[in-house]
Here is the input.
Amino acid sequence: MGRKRTKAQQKRFLAKQAEHKRKIWRVQSILGNLTGYNTEQRFLAAFENLDVDRSAFPEWYVGIQKTSIHLDKAGVDFIIMTDCGGFNLQVKSSELRAMEFASKGRNKHIPVLAILKKDTPEFIRYQVFNIISELREQRLQKRRDRRKHQKENKKLRTQAKQLAAEAVVLEVAKTAFFEQTPL
Here is the structure.
């Protein structure tokens, strides 16, 4: 049987436990930040390394940009620049963290990529180009649809103007006819 603690001893014991947990959380937080930083650096190196053969990149790829602290807090680590604009991307160092990020409601529109320690720069680029290629195609399709609707709307507006002009001509002719015809 253990010795009974006084209330003061129990308080000190609980305070020490709480301090110990805070230290563990602090260390875990620092390690997590370092892991995230290292993952982001590996990701960036996959694109900016001078030894990379750029001819293997898609023709639509323009570049990559690390985001500001403001965008980083909003869930965007990088912007992949293409011929039709930039695409936001979040990078995580584990599949679990990537799934957690993707499941948050405010992050549903931000694609997330899990970069594991075993991933090579070539594989990282392959994954990014697949994701961005799909998003790029969706954006281009939206643009094509918008242009199609704009053309249709322009055609309808032109037809409406023509009908309005014909209605005015008919009204003028009707007025002229009734003014000339005696009752």
